[in-house]
Amino acid sequence: MNKRILLASMFLVLYGAAALAPTTAPDFTLAMLPDTQFYSQFPAYYPSFTGQTAWIAAHRTSDRILFATHVGDVVQNGASGSTGNLAEWQRADAAIALLGDLPHSVALGNHDFDTVSDKTASTRFEQFFGPQRYAGQSWFLGASPDDRNFAQVFTHSGQPFLHVALEWRASDSALAWAMEVLRVHPRVPTILSTHEHLQVGNPGPRSTGGQTPDSGGDNSALDVFEKLVEPFPQVFLVLCGHFHGNGRRTSVTRLGRTVHEVLADFQSDPNGGNGWMQLLRFHLDRAELAFETFSPTYVPGSSAGPNRALDPASNFTLPLDLEVLRDELDASFVVRLREGQPNATGSYSSTRDTYIGTGAAGSTPPGISQSNATSLVADGDGDQEVMLLAFDNLIGTAPGQVPPGATIAKAVLTLTSEGAGAESAHGGRLHRMLVGWGEGSTHDSLGAGVQFGLECAVSFDASSAGQVGSKGTRSFDVTGSVQAWSNGAVNHGWAIFGAGGDDWRVRSSEWATLAERPQLTVVVLDPCPAPRSRCVSNANSFALAGARIDAIGSTSLAAQSLSLVASGIPPGKSGIFLVGASAAQSAFGDGYLCIASPIARLSQPLSSDSAGNLTLALDLQSGPLGAGPLALSPGVTRHFQLWFRDPQGPGGTGSNTTDSVEIQFCP
Q: Rounded to two decimals, what is the model's pTM?
């Protein structure tokens, strides 16, 4: 880095621009860096970039900054020219390096691909901002297989937050990867950062750029919201850049969660953006999230361009009650079913779907099965096609199932309407099936098709009318159906009838791309308080993100079906499960002791398997949990942790620990 530029940036950080002093100190702050492409391109503008990151690092403690996210377009010219645009990438690399070990993320923008806006290759981005950049950082959870999408975690007062960075116009494979990240962190409040999402305005419309409505491929902001945000109740915030200006919108998903989406991009201001960035101030006691726009290099009355710190569009406060969100996440669990998608027991493979028709118009013969169709059809005229869709093994007592008699907080069915003529002005209606059927079923085999009151219910449980007039992904409330099945009705799935004369088509479970197959998401109220992750874990020789411990099964003392599962442990190493009466956090080996006296062993040393996992089925009626100072009774809370050997661990002590899990037991 040019020393004069760095010194100039540091001078501005420390002296030239007034340090931002919020009137009321936030509980913590997240720094958001919008499009820095012109700073990287032009040396004259570069001090704004280094000024931003140096300021963040210098004020990490005073402003309680826990995380920094760059929303893409790190550089302007991709990998163009004979040097592959090396100078721009080196500048960006040096600027981001000033963040030090602060947890942070850099999203892949359209200008960061080797050829601008061509997603074929991103070799320069991967070279400078791929997963190797974050090696050894305990807060880095990993990257997608193509190294274009990333996940991180940061904590406040021992409570984790998940952050996911998505590439520009995320591909179906990127969304499938992100879905898996969210699936394994169901109770962790989550922030998404991506490049192009919201447009300017309040409410700003979601961008439609990047849609591939007739094939699998990339996704627009509309698609990302419907596929990734709508069905995952832990997502509460989406951040983006790309469009110059500010935009925001607040939505309530069909799962009843409030999601804020916020755009900031100042690249069209003088000097490549005048150093403006956004500071997200989280005020937990006031249940507010304040957005403040700040520049370490802009000098009011001297610098050209508007003072964004005074612009109401750039500085505003949104309601955000994270305590309520965590309580809601902890008070429920999610069952999510989609063909081929990982779940609690492996990979789900019990979707049934097909469609039948009368053959009156010659398109869907009444006696020929459509079991291998990649799209399902419902039409109110012509061949009178009816979709049949079911998710088998939905109700049961095994992990990943809805328990019989459970209270369903919400259930949504997510369907993708893409391909030629897939949209429908009239949509369709979902009726619960009353009889059994198979993927080989036809109009004839069902005895003159599906008839109201005989093969299916007369009334419909959900309708897509008015929602599928354009191609894309939509979610529909099917809480009534799933509650009926939980209450004892037999789950035969749905018959979906066309509500008018234009056919409605949706991707089937046979569709090649997982992210567009039918998905059922069920939020189940947990009759017992949900286990809660506590404390933190440090990197070990096997897992950069550290080892973690989870509780699987029921926290009911009567059920006797609770197990502790530790993951991210060096394979073949011994570990001991521990229980404590209360929470703590003190240095212990390479990690932390997260439980407090009295403490007892729950097991003799056990060896982790080849995947780095250890499982212990808890005996709730004998041993330290059955008698003595740690004995269990309804309403009692205990804290659990695993200590394990790690001779090659980064801290050199030879051992490490997981985080901890807090469990309140019920009768």
A: 0.81
